[in-house]
Amino acid sequence: MRSKKREREQKIEEGEENESIEADRESFLQAFEKPTQIYRYLRTRHLASPLYLQRNLSFMKHRQSVTNAKRKTFKVESILKIAEAKRKEPVSGRPHLQCMNLVFSGFFNEQVPLDTNEVEVEAILMKICHKKRKDASSPVIQTSLGKVRVTVNPSSDFDCSEITSSSLNVSPEAFTQNNGHSVKSYVLHLSVTCHLRHSIPNGICNGDLMDPEEPHPKRRKNGRTSVSLDDRDDLIVYGSELVVYDRRKCCQLTEGDYQLVLQELGSKSPPKKQGTWETVLNGKAVGPFEVFNRCPTLKFSLSWKDVSSSSSTTAGSEVLNAYSEFNNAQYSYQPHFDNFSGYLSVPSINGLRAENQTTPRKKTQVVYQFLYSNNMRQQTDAREDMCCPWCSINCDSLYSLLKHLRLSHARFNFLYVPHSKGAKIDVSINERYDGSYVGNPQDLNSHIGYAFSRKGPVRRTPVTHVIVYRPVRMTPSLSEFLELETDNQYNRQLVQGHNRLYYHTATTLPLKPQEIDFDSEDESYPPWLKQKTTNMIDEFTDVNEGEKELMKLWNLHIMKHGHIADCQIPSACNTFVEEHGHYLIEKNLCRNFLLHMMNLFDFSLIKPEVVHRAVWQLEMLKEEMGLE
Description:
By secondary structure, the chain is of the alpha+beta class. It has helices at residues 2-48, 78-88, 231-234, 287-294, 309-312, 325-330, 398-408, 527-538, 545-561, 569-586, 590-602, 608-625, and strands spanning 98-108, 118-129, 140-151, 167-170, 183-195, 235-245, 256-261, 263-264, 297-306, 365-372, 376-379, 412-419, 422-429.
């Protein structure tokens, strides 16, 4: 009996514990679920369309790739000096400069006459640049690398000592950019100029174009013979291209021996059919290699040689050749430690180590402790990264993390608690947060109506901002996070004036900053209303033209000055005579004005003194104008 009772008590205790855990979980979710969902949504929206850049914040300087320390001493004249200094300084942290060496061993073509021993080979480097417009073609910059004489159809026992005269060295300066153009690829163009023999009848020696026993043909008036060919027809140019660096900046010409197939340049006629040997007995011809037997070829060897910086490096040679800059940019990542941020600026496997650091940097463990329901606590696992748990932004340091949490997540209160193993951050609900705007009210109206303007640039509203003197920014310290944030924070944005936003009386639109100095009551006197009043008076038929003209002046005068009370009529009469007295005298409307004043007196709007004063003002104006 006792065992059953104990089991029953244990079940009751377990049920109570489960209920308490479930109640604790519900209270935790009730406190932190809604703000967390809001900040997760804002994080997603910020990734798609950011309102600002994190690197522009004063406490996120580590995210900046370029510092602004040189802005104070910057001058326009210093741009040229900086460019010249970069061209003169040696390139550090990179392999030695290398030059390309081409050694031509011979030109092979069966159609070349036997008395032709050498041909001229010219090397041209073509730089294919990026085009700046879609409808334009890619600009090509051609640079001649030189010309050499190459032996024609050398035999196997050819003297190798003569090959030195057929070599060509390409300096590293040839692979530099020209006039600021962004080079897309480098192409080496080799052209061979030689003399060819034409089809000759039998009985003529090689190299002779005509039989010496036959008489010379008659010459034409233009100086050309009917049988002999022009000198330009004897010069045949062959050429071919080799890609040195492709679009991915990879070097395609490695060291080795090359046999380049050449094609005739400038030939518009279709290629002639050439006879080939048919293979029998199940033999198969290799198509790609058959072209070497039919077309002229150029044999050469290519090598990359290191040169000293004093002999081959000149001012302006910053682009490396052959397995240096272009190959390093594609395949090899050299770890470069950034002095400002403390992170590797280039992806690397050993990303935890810096150049001058032998041991990994010690990471700070951060523990978040959530407070809710009368100081109930719930801790999270220790995290070694400095990423915000709500918006996943890498803050890099503890100070930047705490500053980001307080400024970007105002729905929570964050309190920093030092710990022996790292840092502890107490998170609680900010009961004083009401979602009200605490910034400059002029910023509320700066982008009204432009929220969905994605078609192009929108002109800003012209406004003058008052520059307010700010005190010196305090040195970053974790001590400012040991207490809860107060309203009169030292670094709170200083706003000139109040934080109210005014609206127009008639249209209920927000008042623009440039309209603050003007009274919105002037909106009751628009041009269309004046024209409407004038038209309504003209529609009367039982009054004369003088009365119509006077009532137009009177109504527009009342509308302009905004007189709306009976007590303002005496002052309106005085100002009316001062502004329109000359016009009344010129148009002979003084009697009409006197009748209008008597009507106002009959309706008890003015006193007799006002009538006498208005008449006296008109008489004084007549004397000034010389009228009696």
